[in-house]
Protein backbone atom coordinates (compact mmCIF):
# COMPACT_ATOMS: atom_id res chain seq x y z
CA UNK A 1 0.00 0.00 0.00
CA UNK A 2 1.09 3.54 -0.77
CA UNK A 3 2.12 5.63 2.21
CA UNK A 4 -1.03 7.49 3.24
CA UNK A 5 -1.32 11.20 2.73
CA UNK A 6 1.65 11.48 0.39
CA UNK A 7 1.30 14.39 -2.02
CA UNK A 8 0.74 12.96 -5.50
CA UNK A 9 -0.32 16.08 -7.34
CA UNK A 10 -0.20 19.67 -6.18
CA UNK A 11 -1.72 22.70 -7.79
CA UNK A 12 -0.44 26.10 -6.75
CA UNK A 13 -2.33 29.20 -7.80
CA UNK A 14 -3.49 27.27 -10.83
CA UNK A 15 -5.32 29.32 -13.44
CA UNK A 16 -6.83 28.74 -16.86
CA UNK A 17 -8.01 31.51 -19.14
CA UNK A 18 -10.11 31.18 -22.25
CA UNK A 19 -9.66 34.46 -24.10
CA UNK A 20 -10.31 37.11 -21.48
CA UNK A 21 -12.33 34.80 -19.27
CA UNK A 22 -10.65 33.10 -16.34
CA UNK A 23 -12.38 29.72 -16.02
CA UNK A 24 -10.09 28.73 -13.13
CA UNK A 25 -8.18 31.15 -10.98
CA UNK A 26 -5.71 30.87 -8.09
CA UNK A 27 -6.63 27.33 -7.15
CA UNK A 28 -4.47 25.60 -4.56
CA UNK A 29 -5.04 21.96 -3.84
CA UNK A 30 -3.19 18.79 -3.06
CA UNK A 31 -4.25 15.33 -4.19
CA UNK A 32 -2.85 12.93 -1.63
CA UNK A 33 -2.60 9.17 -1.46
CA UNK A 34 -5.55 7.58 0.26
CA UNK A 35 -7.53 10.83 0.31
CA UNK A 36 -10.59 11.86 -1.65
CA UNK A 37 -11.35 15.44 -2.69
CA UNK A 38 -14.85 16.34 -3.83
CA UNK A 39 -15.25 19.40 -6.06
CA UNK A 40 -18.63 21.13 -6.03
CA UNK A 41 -19.87 24.38 -7.45
CA UNK A 42 -22.47 25.87 -9.73
CA UNK A 43 -22.75 25.25 -13.44
CA UNK A 44 -19.89 26.91 -15.26
CA UNK A 45 -17.85 27.25 -12.04
CA UNK A 46 -14.75 25.73 -13.60
CA UNK A 47 -14.84 22.18 -12.24
CA UNK A 48 -14.30 20.42 -15.57
CA UNK A 49 -11.61 22.90 -16.57
CA UNK A 50 -9.81 22.38 -13.28
CA UNK A 51 -9.89 18.59 -13.60
CA UNK A 52 -8.72 18.76 -17.22
CA UNK A 53 -5.82 20.96 -16.15
CA UNK A 54 -4.90 18.55 -13.36
CA UNK A 55 -4.87 15.75 -15.91
CA UNK A 56 -2.61 17.74 -18.20
CA UNK A 57 -5.24 17.81 -20.93
CA UNK A 58 -5.20 21.58 -21.08
CA UNK A 59 -2.28 23.89 -20.54
CA UNK A 60 -2.67 26.09 -17.46
CA UNK A 61 -2.44 29.84 -18.09
CA UNK A 62 -1.06 30.53 -14.63
CA UNK A 63 0.28 28.81 -11.56
CA UNK A 64 2.04 25.52 -11.16
CA UNK A 65 1.31 21.84 -11.16
CA UNK A 66 3.72 19.46 -9.53
CA UNK A 67 3.49 15.71 -9.72
CA UNK A 68 4.69 13.47 -6.94
CA UNK A 69 7.90 14.30 -5.18
CA UNK A 70 11.13 14.98 -6.95
CA UNK A 71 12.44 11.47 -6.31
CA UNK A 72 9.46 9.46 -7.47
CA UNK A 73 8.17 8.56 -10.91
CA UNK A 74 5.21 10.36 -12.48
CA UNK A 75 2.07 8.96 -10.87
CA UNK A 76 -0.31 6.94 -13.04
CA UNK A 77 -3.68 8.53 -13.74
CA UNK A 78 -7.10 7.07 -14.34
CA UNK A 79 -9.89 9.35 -15.45
CA UNK A 80 -13.59 9.59 -16.19
CA UNK A 81 -14.43 12.59 -18.33
CA UNK A 82 -17.56 13.95 -19.86
CA UNK A 83 -16.21 13.39 -23.34
CA UNK A 84 -15.68 9.71 -22.84
CA UNK A 85 -13.51 8.95 -25.88
CA UNK A 86 -15.02 5.46 -26.24
CA UNK A 87 -14.98 3.87 -29.68
CA UNK A 88 -18.58 3.19 -30.62
CA UNK A 89 -17.93 0.73 -33.39
CA UNK A 90 -16.28 -1.93 -31.24
CA UNK A 91 -17.23 -3.78 -28.06
CA UNK A 92 -16.70 -2.57 -24.54
CA UNK A 93 -14.13 -5.29 -24.04
CA UNK A 94 -12.23 -4.21 -27.15
CA UNK A 95 -12.21 -0.62 -25.92
CA UNK A 96 -10.57 -1.76 -22.71
CA UNK A 97 -8.17 -4.09 -24.56
CA UNK A 98 -6.97 -1.15 -26.63
CA UNK A 99 -6.59 1.06 -23.60
CA UNK A 100 -4.73 -1.67 -21.73
CA UNK A 101 -2.43 -2.04 -24.73
CA UNK A 102 -1.53 1.62 -24.48
CA UNK A 103 -0.94 1.40 -20.74
CA UNK A 104 1.11 -1.77 -20.99
CA UNK A 105 1.44 -4.35 -18.21
CA UNK A 106 -2.30 -4.92 -17.86
CA UNK A 107 -3.34 -8.57 -18.05
CA UNK A 108 -6.52 -9.94 -19.56
CA UNK A 109 -7.54 -11.06 -16.07
CA UNK A 110 -7.23 -7.49 -14.78
CA UNK A 111 -9.49 -6.25 -17.55
CA UNK A 112 -12.07 -8.88 -16.53
CA UNK A 113 -11.74 -7.75 -12.91
CA UNK A 114 -12.35 -4.12 -13.84
CA UNK A 115 -15.39 -5.09 -15.92
CA UNK A 116 -16.68 -7.13 -12.99
CA UNK A 117 -16.06 -4.23 -10.63
CA UNK A 118 -18.49 -2.06 -12.56
CA UNK A 119 -20.97 -4.83 -13.44
CA UNK A 120 -20.19 -4.71 -17.17
CA UNK A 121 -18.79 -8.19 -17.78
CA UNK A 122 -22.00 -9.51 -19.33
CA UNK A 123 -22.41 -6.55 -21.67
CA UNK A 124 -18.72 -6.28 -22.54
CA UNK A 125 -19.13 -8.12 -25.87
CA UNK A 126 -21.70 -5.60 -27.11
CA UNK A 127 -20.83 -2.71 -29.39
CA UNK A 128 -20.37 0.47 -27.32
CA UNK A 129 -22.57 2.36 -29.76
CA UNK A 130 -25.51 0.37 -28.38
CA UNK A 131 -24.78 1.25 -24.73
CA UNK A 132 -26.95 3.48 -22.58
CA UNK A 133 -25.44 6.56 -20.92
CA UNK A 134 -25.02 4.71 -17.63
CA UNK A 135 -23.37 1.73 -19.33
CA UNK A 136 -20.89 4.06 -21.03
CA UNK A 137 -20.16 5.65 -17.65
CA UNK A 138 -19.57 2.25 -16.09
CA UNK A 139 -17.21 1.27 -18.90
CA UNK A 140 -15.33 4.54 -18.46
CA UNK A 141 -14.98 3.78 -14.78
CA UNK A 142 -13.61 0.31 -15.60
CA UNK A 143 -11.16 1.94 -18.00
CA UNK A 144 -10.12 4.41 -15.31
CA UNK A 145 -9.35 1.56 -12.93
CA UNK A 146 -7.09 -0.29 -15.37
CA UNK A 147 -3.44 -0.40 -14.40
CA UNK A 148 -4.10 0.47 -10.75
CA UNK A 149 -3.78 4.23 -11.08
CA UNK A 150 -2.32 6.22 -8.22
CA UNK A 151 -4.59 9.16 -9.02
CA UNK A 152 -8.22 8.99 -10.09
CA UNK A 153 -9.71 12.12 -11.67
CA UNK A 154 -13.45 11.70 -12.07
CA UNK A 155 -15.62 14.38 -13.63
CA UNK A 156 -19.20 13.82 -12.49
CA UNK A 157 -18.67 10.05 -12.43
CA UNK A 158 -22.19 9.40 -11.12
CA UNK A 159 -23.84 10.96 -14.17
CA UNK A 160 -26.27 8.53 -15.72
CA UNK A 161 -25.64 5.80 -13.17
CA UNK A 162 -28.60 3.94 -11.69
CA UNK A 163 -28.87 3.72 -7.88
CA UNK A 164 -26.94 0.45 -7.73
CA UNK A 165 -24.29 2.01 -9.96
CA UNK A 166 -23.94 5.02 -7.68
CA UNK A 167 -23.55 2.73 -4.67
CA UNK A 168 -20.92 0.71 -6.54
CA UNK A 169 -19.13 3.89 -7.55
CA UNK A 170 -18.93 4.96 -3.91
CA UNK A 171 -17.65 1.55 -2.89
CA UNK A 172 -15.03 1.56 -5.63
CA UNK A 173 -13.78 5.02 -4.71
CA UNK A 174 -13.59 4.02 -1.05
CA UNK A 175 -11.81 0.78 -1.94
CA UNK A 176 -9.31 2.58 -4.14
CA UNK A 177 -8.69 5.23 -1.48
CA UNK A 178 -8.10 2.53 1.14
CA UNK A 179 -5.56 1.02 -1.24
CA UNK A 180 -3.74 4.36 -1.39
CA UNK A 181 -5.13 5.99 -4.54
CA UNK A 182 -5.63 9.75 -4.41
CA UNK A 183 -9.05 10.65 -5.76
CA UNK A 184 -10.44 13.94 -6.97
CA UNK A 185 -13.95 14.06 -8.37
CA UNK A 186 -16.67 16.54 -9.18
CA UNK A 187 -20.36 16.12 -8.53
CA UNK A 188 -23.58 18.06 -8.22
CA UNK A 189 -24.85 15.67 -5.58
CA UNK A 190 -24.25 17.21 -2.17
CA UNK A 191 -25.05 13.92 -0.47
CA UNK A 192 -22.50 12.02 -2.57
CA UNK A 193 -19.80 14.61 -2.09
CA UNK A 194 -20.45 14.71 1.64
CA UNK A 195 -20.31 10.95 1.89
CA UNK A 196 -17.34 10.29 -0.36
CA UNK A 197 -14.91 13.09 0.39
CA UNK A 198 -12.26 13.71 3.00
CA UNK A 199 -12.12 17.29 1.76
CA UNK A 200 -14.76 19.26 -0.07
CA UNK A 201 -13.68 22.17 -2.26
CA UNK A 202 -16.36 24.58 -3.35
CA UNK A 203 -15.52 26.63 -6.42
CA UNK A 204 -17.45 29.43 -7.99
CA UNK A 205 -16.43 31.59 -10.93
CA UNK A 206 -13.19 29.64 -11.07
CA UNK A 207 -12.07 30.39 -7.54
CA UNK A 208 -12.09 28.33 -4.38
CA UNK A 209 -14.74 29.99 -2.27
CA UNK A 210 -14.63 27.67 0.68
CA UNK A 211 -13.41 24.25 1.64
CA UNK A 212 -14.07 21.97 4.52
CA UNK A 213 -12.78 18.66 5.77
CA UNK A 214 -13.73 15.77 8.02
CA UNK A 215 -12.89 17.73 11.12
CA UNK A 216 -14.79 20.85 10.06
CA UNK A 217 -17.77 21.76 12.23
CA UNK A 218 -20.86 19.69 11.71
CA UNK A 219 -24.32 21.15 11.21
CA UNK A 220 -27.42 19.58 12.63
CA UNK A 221 -30.96 20.24 11.62
CA UNK A 222 -33.56 20.29 14.35
CA UNK A 223 -37.24 21.01 14.11
CA UNK A 224 -39.33 22.28 16.94
CA UNK A 225 -42.59 20.40 17.14
CA UNK A 226 -45.66 20.20 19.36
CA UNK A 227 -45.65 22.69 22.20
CA UNK A 228 -42.14 23.75 21.29
CA UNK A 229 -43.44 24.97 17.97
CA UNK A 230 -45.42 27.63 19.84
CA UNK A 231 -43.59 30.34 18.03
CA UNK A 232 -42.17 33.30 19.88
CA UNK A 233 -41.41 31.96 23.35
CA UNK A 234 -39.97 28.63 22.28
CA UNK A 235 -37.89 30.08 19.55
CA UNK A 236 -36.55 32.70 21.88
CA UNK A 237 -35.77 30.03 24.47
CA UNK A 238 -33.96 27.95 21.86
CA UNK A 239 -31.96 30.92 20.64
CA UNK A 240 -30.89 31.73 24.18
CA UNK A 241 -30.03 28.10 24.91
CA UNK A 242 -27.89 27.87 21.82
CA UNK A 243 -26.33 31.29 22.01
CA UNK A 244 -22.86 29.90 22.62
CA UNK A 245 -22.93 28.52 19.12
CA UNK A 246 -22.02 31.59 17.22
CA UNK A 247 -23.42 30.43 13.98
CA UNK A 248 -26.69 29.07 15.34
CA UNK A 249 -29.52 30.41 13.29
CA UNK A 250 -33.00 29.66 12.15
CA UNK A 251 -33.79 28.07 8.86
CA UNK A 252 -37.42 28.79 9.05
CA UNK A 253 -39.31 26.71 10.08
CA UNK A 254 -36.30 24.80 11.29
CA UNK A 255 -33.68 25.72 13.77
CA UNK A 256 -30.31 25.01 12.27
CA UNK A 257 -27.18 25.30 14.31
CA UNK A 258 -23.56 24.58 13.89
CA UNK A 259 -21.84 22.29 16.31
CA UNK A 260 -18.18 21.56 16.53
CA UNK A 261 -17.38 17.90 16.93
CA UNK A 262 -16.44 18.68 20.50
CA UNK A 263 -20.09 19.62 21.02
CA UNK A 264 -22.00 16.73 19.55
CA UNK A 265 -25.71 16.57 18.96
CA UNK A 266 -26.64 15.15 22.36
CA UNK A 267 -25.05 18.17 24.06
CA UNK A 268 -27.13 20.53 21.94
CA UNK A 269 -30.26 18.59 22.72
CA UNK A 270 -29.38 18.72 26.41
CA UNK A 271 -29.10 22.51 26.17
CA UNK A 272 -32.53 22.73 24.61
CA UNK A 273 -33.94 20.40 27.21
CA UNK A 274 -32.45 22.50 30.00
CA UNK A 275 -34.16 25.49 28.38
CA UNK A 276 -37.45 23.70 29.00
CA UNK A 277 -37.87 22.71 25.42
CA UNK A 278 -38.73 19.07 26.07
CA UNK A 279 -36.87 16.66 23.84
CA UNK A 280 -40.15 15.07 22.89
CA UNK A 281 -40.78 18.33 21.04
CA UNK A 282 -37.42 18.59 19.35
CA UNK A 283 -37.15 16.48 16.25
CA UNK A 284 -33.64 15.58 15.26
CA UNK A 285 -33.51 15.62 11.48
CA UNK A 286 -29.92 14.45 11.43
CA UNK A 287 -26.93 16.12 9.88
CA UNK A 288 -27.69 19.09 7.72
CA UNK A 289 -25.38 18.43 4.80
CA UNK A 290 -26.81 21.29 2.78
CA UNK A 291 -25.98 23.96 5.32
CA UNK A 292 -22.46 24.74 4.08
CA UNK A 293 -23.93 25.47 0.65
CA UNK A 294 -26.66 27.86 1.75
CA UNK A 295 -26.04 31.39 0.66
CA UNK A 296 -22.97 30.55 -1.43
CA UNK A 297 -24.72 31.03 -4.74
CA UNK A 298 -28.19 32.01 -5.66
CA UNK A 299 -30.23 31.51 -8.77
N1 LIG B 1 -12.93 25.52 -24.41
C1 LIG B 1 -13.50 26.58 -23.85
N2 LIG B 1 -13.51 27.75 -24.47
C2 LIG B 1 -14.07 28.85 -23.90
N3 LIG B 1 -14.65 28.84 -22.68
C3 LIG B 1 -14.69 27.68 -22.03
C4 LIG B 1 -14.13 26.49 -22.57
N4 LIG B 1 -14.31 25.48 -21.67
C5 LIG B 1 -14.96 26.03 -20.63
N5 LIG B 1 -15.17 27.33 -20.83
C6 LIG B 1 -15.83 28.27 -19.90
O1 LIG B 1 -15.18 28.13 -18.66
C7 LIG B 1 -16.12 28.21 -17.59
C8 LIG B 1 -16.02 26.96 -16.74
O2 LIG B 1 -16.52 25.86 -17.48
P1 LIG B 1 -16.48 24.38 -16.88
O3 LIG B 1 -16.98 23.46 -17.94
O4 LIG B 1 -15.14 24.13 -16.34
O5 LIG B 1 -17.55 24.49 -15.69
P2 LIG B 1 -18.18 23.36 -14.76
O6 LIG B 1 -18.02 23.83 -13.35
O7 LIG B 1 -17.59 22.03 -15.10
O8 LIG B 1 -19.71 23.43 -15.18
P3 LIG B 1 -20.91 22.37 -15.10
O9 LIG B 1 -21.23 22.15 -13.67
O10 LIG B 1 -22.01 23.08 -15.80
O11 LIG B 1 -20.45 21.12 -15.81
C9 LIG B 1 -17.48 28.42 -18.23
O12 LIG B 1 -17.74 29.81 -18.24
C10 LIG B 1 -17.28 27.92 -19.64
O13 LIG B 1 -18.14 28.58 -20.54
TrEMBL record:
The keyword Nucleotide-binding applies. Keywords: ATP-binding, Nucleotide-binding, Transport. GO terms for molecular function: ATP binding; ATP hydrolysis activity. InterPro entries: AAA+_ATPase (IPR003593), ABC_transporter-like_ATP-bd (IPR003439), ABC_transporter-like_CS (IPR017871), P-loop_NTPase (IPR027417). Residues 9-230 form the ABC transporter domain. It comes from the Bacteria. Signal peptide: none annotated. Belongs to the ABC transporter superfamily. PANTHER family: ABC TRANSPORTER, ATP-BINDING PROTEIN. This is ABC-2 type transport system ATP-binding protein. The lineage of its organism: Bacteria, Bacillati, Actinomycetota, Actinomycetes, Actinopolysporales.
Amino acid sequence: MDSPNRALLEATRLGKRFGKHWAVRDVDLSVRSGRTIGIVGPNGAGKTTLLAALLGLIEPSAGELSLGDANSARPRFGAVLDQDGLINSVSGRRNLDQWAGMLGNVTSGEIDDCLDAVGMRAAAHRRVGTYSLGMRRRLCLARALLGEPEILVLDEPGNGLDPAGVIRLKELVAERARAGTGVIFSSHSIADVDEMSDEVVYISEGRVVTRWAEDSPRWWKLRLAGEAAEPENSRHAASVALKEYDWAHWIDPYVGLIAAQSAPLHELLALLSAAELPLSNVVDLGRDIEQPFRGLDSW
